[in-house]
Fold WD40 repeat domain-containing protein.
Amino acid sequence: MKRRNVLRAIAIGAPLVGAGALGAGIAAADTANFKVMVTEQVANKVFVFDKNKAFTDANAYKTWSPGTGGWSNLSDCRIRDTAQFGAIGLAAASGGRVGVWNITDEKHQELNDVLWSATPGGNPHALERIPNVGAFVAASSDGYLTVYGPTKVSDPSTLAKVQTVSLPGAHGVVWDPNNNLLWACGNKVVQAYTVSGTYRNVRLKAHSKKVALSGLGHDLQADFSNSSLLQVSDSYGVYSVNKTTLAKTTLHTTTRIKAYVKMAGGEHFYVRGDNAGSRDWGSPTVVFSQSTDRTRTGAEFYKARYYTTAYN
């Protein structure tokens, strides 16, 4: 079996009931024909595509093009729901910036659609929103998490840095609504954090829950087939982590998986760094386990996400 096809043989868990989301055109439940959100670093755009259509400009459902400079080499994207703006996009860029933008106002968004941005430094790789308190947490691969707290939960323009937490190799963050924990992955570890306080007093504290990895953690996401699990990739493979027992199950040992998503209903998709092209950490192809792989000529995809505001 070819290495790029190893993931096709992975068994998928039981479906998740009612994986909800909000906003026009955003999935309200898992379907066979879902949308995929990707960071493409050559054009330096976030694209949203129907996974059953070719990843061409004509087929783009949504795009966001923030320009270069601090927004160069987009390294993360996801969407979350807010009371004031509805669905918003979250992004991190290795050029130095993290921020959120209004994804609902038009089909093709640009820098002028940004609602808030910041420069946490240290090669930002991920950004997550903590609901209810309106805080955001960025992961920078140089070794730390940065917490931003608002003075008004509904207004991201009021966000300011309130805390920096050491985490060597920080690459991924995801909110766990079932346990009210923030999970982050770094160098050889997945670490949980409690969240206390509100507004500018919001703070993270390392929880006793943590799981050892074999190498540098790359991607950390919810498991949309089972809300009790997390999915994490490191330099040597992809793993399932039970959020209660902390049991880690190796799903496969394919290297350099930069993004991995496990859906309810049996589908999974991923991006694997191919050691080729202008950015050897990326790939022009998003691989699907039950659908046609999607290759965009000349592209360098880094992250791929399920286009939903649901946390799990």
Summary: The two ends are 31 Å apart (CA to CA). The chain is about 0% helix and 50% strand. The chain has one domain: 3-26+36-306. The first strand starts at residue 35 and ends at 40.
